[in-house]
Amino acid sequence: MRPKLVVDYVVYLIVRLFICTVQATPLSVCAQVSKCLAWLASDILKIRGNLVHSNLKNAFPEITVEDRKKLARRSWYHLCLMVCEIAHAPRKLHDTNWHKHIQMKDIHIQIEQALGRRPVVVLLGHFGNFEVMGYCTGMLGFPTYTVARPLDNPFLHKYLEEFRSSTGQIILPKQGSAPYIEEVLNQNGTLALLCDQNAGAKGCWVEFLNRPASYHKAISVFSMTSGAPLVFLYMRRTGGPMQFEFGVEGIYDPAECDEPKGVKEVTQWYNEMLERVVRRDPDQYWWVHNRWKDDRPAKKREKEKKRLEAARVAAAA
Known about the structure:
Layout lengths: L2 H21 L3 H18 L4 H11 L5 H28 L9 E4 L1 H8 L5 E5 L5 H10 L5 E4 L5 H12 L4 E4 L4 H9 L3 E5 L9 E5 L2 E5 L1 H10 L3 E8 L6 E9 L10 H18 L17 H19 L1
Parallel strand pairs: 1-9, 2-5, 2-8, 3-4, 3-5
Antiparallel strand pairs: 6-7, 8-9
């Protein structure tokens, strides 16, 4: 066996042992441990501290430094508790008791779309517990096709894929997925995509939380070419562990538009949906994510900055 595979397998065993320990621990205890881990990661070790505080400073310039520190700590708590909830989901959530853990909000919109005779593109961000949302969507009888990048560790990748597909999610590889996506849309299937992944310098740039961010153009193109409605979903924690609100933030249906929107307009729409949910519960967003990475030439960045400043002035007038 190659040395890398040995290391990967050892890491896999450690992760499985950790998950077994979490599953054997009551969720109430997991929540208390998560608070301690959040304090350790945010205040003591300062993991990705500069990035987190820079992101929060740009997104919420009106709050104090002390409030940003508290928000950073709460976001780490959310991440730690999210891992615990994912580990407990197969044992805690079933088709007979899900209503004790999840409140539905405007979800009938998604059901109507899913039962229609057109394809549907479901959008979500690195917000709330999106992994549990995917698990529950399949459990409730609405399987989705999800595009995901394979993990570098093949053993962990297989384990995570088994969790994601256990209730009906079908995972498509990120590389070479175009023909599969086309087939899903042609057969009126439901495609689920994380919409806030950096698309690099050639992506579609729109303002997100006061800064330009790059989005994949393909999401808008899928809707424009297939006529599929875009449905923005979220699952936010409403109280203690494993207590969620599962809702529809908005829907864009190209069939109901008098004039078809372009890529940038559609991208702007779902970006605004994401910003709305993040501003309501900022502690449940992945601030450790380098969402605003900008690899464009300095000239283009400066031009975009001036354009956004002009747009803000015009909106305020």
